[in-house]
Fold TIR domain-containing protein.
Amino acid sequence: MNHIRTLTSSSQQDLQLIATALIWKLEKEPETIIKTVQQQQQPSSISSLMIDRKQYDIMISYSHNDKELCHRILSSLEKDQLCVWIDSRLMHGATFDAMAKAIENAEFVLVCMSDAYKQSPFCEMEASYAVKRRCHIIPLVMTTSYKADGWLGVLTSALIYIDFPKLGFDKAYQELKKQIGLFRMNNSNLILAEQNQVHHNSSSLMDSIPKTNSSVENNKEPRPVV
């Protein structure tokens, strides 16, 4: 492990990134997964659902080979007043801790799929971590006729793809907004259903409490004043 730590200071950037990623995976990732499991074991409540507002609406996970289309999507999202995390905003490149925190604090994770994305171990780490955190993932196809396979195919097989090259940018972007809106509507309905259930339980509890018979009290003869 000490040898791997020394490689994080290597003059070769690729070697430096690989060493940093390996240390993060061995040390940091297990800690965050344990925290996730502990949070999931705690009983949910309406207050926790309502208070659990994320710092970011969206985190974009992408290969830099596809940055032109990704930044076009980013620009459109921000025009629609959505708060988006993307690694290009960090002056010295994204650290893995920053990436992990972005995933943990984003309502949606956009997985921008392409062959370059699939081949990148860093993209695989991001996508896998988003799955482990049980994030709401929306897969976006970045390149013409791309079909996800391997680890990326397994990860996204049950999800609805939005194919930007096939649909064209405008139509695909509208579909993306539709998916975001549907998820938020379903989440709001879940909160409303839980609120109604709590109200029903409270009413049932009040009905079960014995009521004082006021008519009996009123029929009692008044005591004489001595």
Observations:
- The chain has a mean pLDDT of 78.
- The first strand starts at residue 56 and ends at 61.
